[in-house]
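[agent] plan:
  1. take the single chain provided in the ticket
  2. run structure prediction with default settings
  3. attach structure tokens to the ticket
  4. add a short note for the reviewer (M.T.)
[agent] executing step 1
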Amino acid sequence: MVTLADAIAAQFKRDHPNGKGTLLCVGLCRRRKDREDFRELPTHGRAAECIRCETFPGPAGRSLWQLTQDARGHWELEQSREKLRTYQRYAQWLRLQRLLATAPRTADLIRAQEQPYVDAIEASMRKWSPAWYGALSEALTPTQEDS
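[agent] step 2 finished; step 3 output follows
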């Protein structure tokens, strides 16, 4: 006696000789099914699970397909946030470089602070150097009395 399941299996084998045009579902059913029973991927392939297994309600009443899409959406959101953080850090680095290029250097600040003292010393040297020169030259020149 031939059952309905046997008739369906025989028809499937006639439609797909040697398993041609079929894929094995890795989902809950674990059966070989027609390629049209699998979702087409954007990468021009087919999903590993048949549509029935993908849409089978899993945790919280959501299908595996929905859970996968949610996980992918969360991952893409995380990636875009990280990309935004990277751009923000780069903009901060560029601002720092611009600030460092326009800011005065430490040596310039110290020189500007010490400049009044240097000017005062140079002024006193200009003021007293003729007197010292005259006194030293008089002291070091031989007098006519000695000769």
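[agent] step 4 note for reviewer: The mean pLDDT is 82.
[agent] ticket updated
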